[in-house]
Design a protein that fits this description.
The complex is a heterodimer. Chain A has 13 helices and no strands. By secondary structure, chain A is mostly helical. In chain B, α3 packs across α10, α8 packs across α10 and α12 runs antiparallel to α13. The chains are: A mainly alpha, B mainly alpha.
Chain lengths: 274, 283
């Protein structure tokens, strides 16, 4: 018993140390975001005894560039997720409640399109977008990200709908419920949590997506990913600034991610790990 | 009902066809023709010439090796680290929620942010945090991106994917049958034996899924290279090669051939993933 307790304490201490080490880069950036540029690059680094300042946040929020990028990120992530759901909900609903011989194959085919690396289709899409004036537009990027997240959305919704007992829907039908009533009054309340978590997962993935957003946007439609990537040029290296902007860009999805950890596991493994 | 079902599914199928299958066919076609953006009058069918050119290019070998090394390194670090972390988290009683939040955070950081924070705040050889830490041990600061660019990128990407592996393995560990473990303990099995004989087989499937999911995302690893080395110092991978062939050298044919090589790679892996997931569909 004594040994068991000791090893539990050991595991606890180890877990805390490891967890802080894993989160350290973020914690360090958070701290740096409150320093002046001079202190941010100071050697040796200071941990607490520096003059704390909000200047970096003020500078980031003061310039219009950050808000333009934030707005584009919101539009791209929100728009692509809404579009993906709009297309995925009917598909998942049909496959869950009116399966045919082909349903299984169709689901696996959708999954297999996710296995196609974006580099394999970058060039035709880039050229097509160039010719149709879709380069550097919010809608151009949003449609692609919607398509990219569609398999995940369909799979998550499908496994969610599957858990709704068919008897309840049948009972509603017996009681004379019309299809719309069946959908709105019986199915929707039961499926709503799954719908919400699906939305949040694909929103997060779209928010952080950095292949298409870097390749297809330049100025007008540049979201936060492209805005931050512009900090990579040597003359743009202001660590405190970079830290503040990073914190501002990461915070929204971090909050969402913390709330939806379980759905994340399910969505990203296509229901294979519950 | 059947007709309506088809109607409901068709927008999803159409969107996927237009966004992935159609462009893929176009990429295959581009890879077979001579197509350079700045050279007028190209478009001639050249068969496999782009592939021959690509495969015999002295920089292709290292690029392919880099792609594999990066994927391999990230897989090993994120799975071994993630499993270790999951085993620790599973035993923790105090502050479990907070610990989980700390551990999964890196997964939600957008790639350009994590790459730039690591490269500058941590790995910079003069004033970076790691330089200070090594000075505490009396060591000279290591110039990460000058001396080991590929490993540096691998480390950053591993940090991003460790939470993913950890979360999946933790979920799966928690569904591990307690009674089975207790029975084994009563029979006098040591912790190591239980881990090897019971826990590892239980984790085989989730580990396989982590390997394949990560591989698929890592085949398109791009932003981390783009913002740190810009593909220089021998740190380019297949995805970056496609980008530089097309967007910098304007050689669409060669870039498409490289893209198809990446697709073939992914397909071999996808074959196994789809089979594994298909099995869970039947279960």
């Amino acid at each position: 018993m004594h040994r068991g307790r000791l090893s539990t304490i050991g595991a606890g201490a180890g877990a805390w140390l490891a967890a802080i080490a894993i989160a350290f880069p973020l914690l360090w950036a958070l701290l740096t975001s409150f320093k002046t540029e001079l202190e941010a690059a100071a050697y040796p680094p200071s941990f607490v005894n520096f003059s704390w300042t909000l200047d970096n946040y003020r500078a980031a929020l003061g310039g219009g560039e950050y808000f333009a990028a934030l707005w584009n990120s919101l539009l791209i992530a929100g728009g692509s997720s809404a579009l993906a759901l709009l297309v995925a909900v009917p598909a998942a609903w049909a496959m869950a409640f009116a399966p045919t011989r082909r349903t299984r194959g169709l689901l696996l085919w959708m999954l297999s399109t996710k296995m196609l690396p974006p580099v394999g289709v970058l060039i035709p899409i880039y050229l097509f977008y160039r010719d149709w004036n879709l380069l550097d537009t919010v809608s151009g990027v949003a449609i692609l990200l919607a398509a990219g997240n569609l398999p995940i959305a369909v799979w998550m919704l499908f496994s969610n709908f599957k858990e709704v007992p068919a008897e309840i829907l049948e009972a509603a039908r017996m009681d004379g419920a019309l299809l719309l009533q069946e959908l709105g009054l019986v199915l929707a309340p039961m499926a709503l949590p799954g719908l919400a978590s699906t939305f949040f997962l694909i929103f997060t993935l779209a928010w952080n997506e950095s292949f298409w957003t870097l390749n297809l946007t330049s100025t007008d439609a540049a979201p936060l990913t492209a805005f931050i990537a512009a900090f990579s040029s040597p003359q743009g290296l202001f660590w405190a600034q970079l830290s503040a902007v990073s914190m501002l860009s990461v915070a929204p999805v971090l909050a969402i991610g913390w709330l939806c950890q379980r759905q994340l596991v399910r969505g990203l493994t296509f229901g294979a790990v519950k | 009902m059947r007709g309506r079902g088809r109607l409901l599914v068709s927008p999803a199928v159409a969107l996927l066809l237009v966004s992935s299958i159609l462009p893929l066919v176009a990429t295959i076609w581009f890879s077979l023709i001579d197509y350079r953006l700045l050279v007028p009058g190209t478009g001639r069918f050249v068969g496999l010439a782009n592939y021959v050119h690509l495969l015999t290019d002295p920089s292709f070998g290292p690029t392919l090796v880099n792609t594999l090394l990066l994927i391999g390194m990230v897989l090993v670090v994120s799975i071994v680290g993630g499993l270790g972390m999951a085993l620790l988290l599973e035993r923790v009683v105090l502050g479990r929620g907070v610990l989980r939040l700390l551990v999964i955070s890196p997964f939600f950081v957008m790639p350009p942010v994590s790459a730039l924070l690591w490269k500058n705040l941590l790995m910079q050889p003069v004033a970076g945090f790691f330089a200070w830490v090594s000075s505490l041990f009396g060591l000279r600061a290591f110039d990460w991106f000058a001396r080991a660019p590929l490993a540096s990128i691998g480390l950053i990407v591993s940090w991003q994917w460790l939470p993913f592996a950890c979360l999946i393995l933790l979920t799966s560990l928690q569904s591990f049958d307690r009674e089975q473990r207790e029975a084994a303990q009563l029979d006098g099995a040591s912790a190591f034996v239980i881990f090897r004989q019971l826990v590892i087989p239980h984790l085989a499937r989730p580990i396989a899924i982590v390997v394949m999911m990560e591989t698929i995302f890592l085949l398109s690893l791009f932003a981390e290279i783009f913002v740190t080395t810009g593909g220089g110092r021998g740190s380019s991978n297949l995805a970056f090669l496609v980008y530089s062939q097309a967007m910098v050298r304007y050689d669409v044919g060669a870039a498409s051939a490289a893209g198809i090589v990446a697709v073939v790679f992914a397909n071999v892996l996808a074959f196994f993933l789809v089979r594994a997931v298909g099995r869970s569909l039947d279960a």
